[in-house]
Amino acid sequence: MAKKKSILDLHKMKKSGEKVTWVTAYDYPMASFAEQAGIDMILVGDSLGMVVLGYEGTVPVSMDDCISHCQAARRGAPNTFIVGDMPFGSYQTTDGNAVANACKFLKEANVDAIKLEGGIRVVDKIKAIADAGIIVIGHIGLTPQSAGQLGGFKAQGLHVDSARELIKDAIAIQEAGALALLLEAVPPELSKFIATKLSIPVYSIGAGLPCDGQLIICGDMLGMFQAFTPKFVKKYANVAEVIINAFKEYIEDVKGERFPEDKHVYHIKDSLEDFNKLFEEFK
Ligand code: KIV
User: Fold this and answer.
1) C-alpha dihedral over 175, 178, 183, 189, to 10 degrees?
2) pLDDT tens string 8-46
3) Which end of the chain, N or C, is surrounded by fewer C-beta atoms within 10 Å?
4) Are 206 and 220 in contact (CB under 8 A)?
5) What is the pLDDT of residues 49-67, one digit of tens each?
6) Distance, CA 251 to ligand 1 centroid (Å)?
7) How many other CB atoms are found less than 10 A from the CB of residue 81?
8) Could you tell me if the CB of 217 is within 6 A of ligand 1?
9) Which domains does the chain have, with CATH numbers?
C-alpha cells in the first residue's frame, strides 16, 4: 500500500511537476475505492449536500453532516490525505468560530486539512486557522456556497477585470498562510498564470491542464449525479445505469421467483421429518 502523502509531499510534487490526483468521496466504500486505486487526495466536499443528500445546493449542509461523512471517509481511507470542507456558516462569522470548527474537523474526523471558499474577504479566517496549526486550502473562482451572488454555477475570470480580482485573491490567500489553492471553473490562461505565480500547489476543478493537479467530483465522474453535468466533467463510468439495471433485474427475479436460489438459503441441520414433527406441534 502506498504511503499517505503529507503536505510536504504535495509541495514536492508541484516542484517536480508530478500531477496530483484528487477526488471527492463522502462515505466508507467510495473513500476505500479511491485509496485502493491510488488516488493522492480525497475531498469530503460539502457537495455531499447535492451528490448524497439531494439538496439543490451546498448551503443547507451542516458541520455535523460534514464531520460524520469525514469520519466515514477516514474509516475507508486511513492512508490517504483527506481534506474536510468547511460548510456554509461554519467560518463566515468570527475568526474564533472558524478556528473552533476547523479544530472540530481535525479532532473528531482526523482529516489532514480543511478547505474553505473565498478570496480576500476570508483571508482573516484563513490566517486564524493557519495560525492554529491547521493546513488550510483556499478555493476561488466558482464558489458554490456563494453561487447565488455569482448568479448561478458560472465560470469565473473570463474577463480581465474579474481575472485581476482572482489573481489578487490568490496572492492574498497564499500570504495568509494557506498551503494550497483550488481554482474552480476559470480559464486555463488564468490558472496557468496563478499556478506559476504562487509557490503553493494550485489545483484545478474546471481550470484546465496547467495546474498542479486535478479534482473531480466522484458523483460526476462515475455518472451517479444525474441533476446536471458541468462542462468540465469527464464521465469515466455510468454507475447510475449499472445500479438501475441491477435493481430492475432484481425486481424481475423476485416477481418471477427466480431469487433467492437454493445457494442463497440456509439448510436445515436436522431431518425434514423432525422439522415436520415440530410444525405439527404448533398446528
Ligand atoms: O464541495 C466540493 O466538492 C467542492 C468542489 C466543488 C470543489 O468544493
Assistant:
1) 40
2) 999 999 999 999 999 999 999 999 999 999 999 999 999
3) C
4) no
5) 999 999 999 999 999 999 9
6) 35
7) 22
8) yes
9) 7-237 (3.20.20.60), 242-281 (no CATH)
